[in-house]
Amino acid sequence: MTDATGPEIWFYHLERSTLDQVLPELLGRTLQRGWRALVRVAEERRLEDIDERLWTFREDSFLAHGRADEANAGRQPILLTQSMENPNGAQALFIVDGSELGATESYQRCFIIFDGRDDTALTGARQRWKDLKGQGANLAYWKQTDEGWQKAA
Q: Can you tell me the distance from the alpha carbon of 116 to that of 122, in angstroms, rounded to the nearest whole number?
């Protein structure tokens, strides 16, 4: 749900799990809501890794998806990209590996996923939080606990 300041922007601080474990779960929940998703990455190599992972993350299922540089990108429920565009009309934006957030007005929710065990990623996420908070963004911070994800701010 959006408010006057834009979409909800949720920070996911990975401490116990990897992106490969968390991203498919969050994407699955996004699809269950009836939303489309856009996963924005900074590097081509990461795009390739996520592409492969979404086809193989479980033996009994996969997450249908495509890449923005392929035909029919706009028809994909999950789209992987390095671009700032939203060709599939996604309601959920996933930012990984410090990729740029860009304009967020067209999204209902943005997920900024970062590895808390990586000092560079942690520093970048803290700065991004500070900048967005200063802009009046609708922020939430989720951290991993032994019981699962807990909203901490």
A: 5
pLDDT digits (tens, 9 = 90+) for 98-108: 899 999 999 99
The CATH number for 38's domain is 3.40.50.10110
Cα separations in angstroms, 23 against 3, 26, 27, 51, 145 = 25, 5, 6, 11, 17
Distance set, CA 57 to CA 22, 51, 92, 97, 145 (Å): 10, 10, 20, 19, 22
Check: pTM over 0.85? Answer yes or no.
Answer: yes
User: Which pLDDT does position 5 carry in this prediction?
Assistant: 61
**What DSSP designation does 73 have?**
G
Q: Which residues pair with 94 in a beta bridge?
A: 39, 111
Q: Phi/psi of residue 84, each to 5°?
A: -90, 0
Number of folded domains that form the chain:
1
